[in-house]
Amino acid sequence: MKNFKKNQLIFLSILFLTIFLFTAVGNAESQISASEWLAKGNQSLEEQDYVNAIADYTKAIELNPLNANAYINRGNSYSHKGLYDLAITDFNKAIELNPQDANTYANRAICHYQMGKRTAAKEDLELFLKYASPDDKRVEMVKKRLLEL
Fold first, then answer.
1. What is the pLDDT of residues 46-64, one digit of tens each?
2. How confident is the model over 98-131, as pLDDT tens digits?
3. At CB < 8 A and 24+ separation, what contacts does 91-94 make?
4. How far is Cα 93 from Cα 88, in angstroms, rounded to an integer?
5. CA torsion through residues 74, 79, 85, 87, sign
6. CA dihedral defined by 66, 69, 75, 79, rounded to 10 degrees?
7. Percentage of residues of the chain with pLDDT beyond 90
8. Are 38 and 67 in contact (CB under 8 A)?
9. DSSP designation for 132
10. Can you tell me the distance from the alpha carbon of 56 to that of 43, in angstroms, rounded to the nearest whole number?
């Protein structure tokens, strides 16, 4: 009977250790913070590795769904891949989180324009002008572009 209890204790110890090790290895990736995933995504975006950028920003969003920058940057990555509907969805979420960010309206305007939605693009450019800093160098270009739409 003592051997049975001893074997049972050894078995449970091994089982516990195995579970602990698998959990530790599995959690290593989740130990990376949202800001670290955002930084990884930024690096991938800079390298024009849009697939990995999208994956990294998605992980950042999973960890911090209130980070507008993660949605903006994932939206930019989608836009570079020509996935304008997905980009607009992310830009919409970023605007929901930060409605006065002029750059997000400009990014969304580009997607609308690429999709042939001139009215929506024009509305976004007008919102860009509303929220852009007066000394933003793009303001004059956007005003001229609005006249063309």
1. 999 999 999 999 999 999 9
2. 999 999 999 999 999 999 999 999 999 999 999 9
3. 93/68, 94/68, 94/69
4. 9
5. positive
6. 180
7. 69
8. yes
9. S
10. 10
Q: How far apart are CA 65 and CA 14, in angstroms?
A: 38
Query: Which superfamily does 34-148 belong to?
Result: Tetratricopeptide repeat domain (1.25.40.10)
Name residues whose C-beta falls within 8 Å of residue 85's C-beta, 6 or more positions apart in sequence. Answer: 115
d(CA 50, CA 31): 23
- Rounded to whole angstroms, how far apart are CA atoms 116 and 38? 31
Whether 108 and 88 have beta carbons less than 8 Å apart is answered as: yes
H or E segment at 102? Answer: helix 102-114
Residues 134, 124, 92, 43: what is their CA dihedral angle, to the nearest 10 degrees?
-60
Helix, strand, coil percentages (3-state) for the chain, rounded to 5, are 80, 0, 20
Domain range list for the chain: 34-148
